[in-house]
Specification:
single chain, alpha+beta, Aminopeptidase, three-stranded antiparallel β-sheet
């Protein structure tokens, strides 16, 4: 998955390709996330092949409320449009409920139509938009009620 994402221009998994043990330590130490908040990372795999990744954040900073939210996810580029993103988000929501989170913030880039559909299929209600500090793109902001 790391090599495939990199080939598609996504550099967030470069360390995983060059030094996987260090990559895993950074996840365990909570250092992979830019916003140092408590959270957990899960991988969706099938027969040893990683298909997707989801990162759960158990609290929000002001920055995460604007962009990033409680959940971030990636689906391997060649596995997109097969329902994995929708299922991954569906599986992640109860984990946040178990942490006492009743209202989940999730965001996606305005031009990421696939991600917007995933969020909306899982009960996401568009609440606003903002501009990404990183990319300068417009970011769609959603809330999902879990209660």
């Amino acid at each position: 998955m790391a090599a495939e994402c990199s080939a598609f221009g996504d550099t967030r998994y470069v360390l995983a390709m060059s030094d996987f043990p260090t990559y895993l330590r950074k996840i365990a130490d909570g250092k992979r996330e830019v916003q140092r908040v408590p959270g957990t990372e899960y991988w969706l795999e099938d027969s040893g092949k990683i298909l997707a990744c989801v990162r759960l954040r158990y609290r929000l900073t002001a920055e995460l409320e604007q962009e990033g939210g409680h959940i971030g996810y990636d689906v391997r580029p060649t596995m997109r449009r097969l329902g994995y993103g929708t299922q991954l988000l569906r599986l992640a929501l109860p984990m946040l409920r178990e942490q006492g989170i009743g209202r989940v913030r999730i965001t996606c880039d305005e031009d990421n139509v696939g991600s917007a559909k995933i969020i909306e299929r899982n009960g996401g209600v568009l609440s606003g938009s903002g501009v990404s500090r990183e990319s300068g793109k417009t970011v769609r902001q959603y809330w999902i009620e879990l209660n």
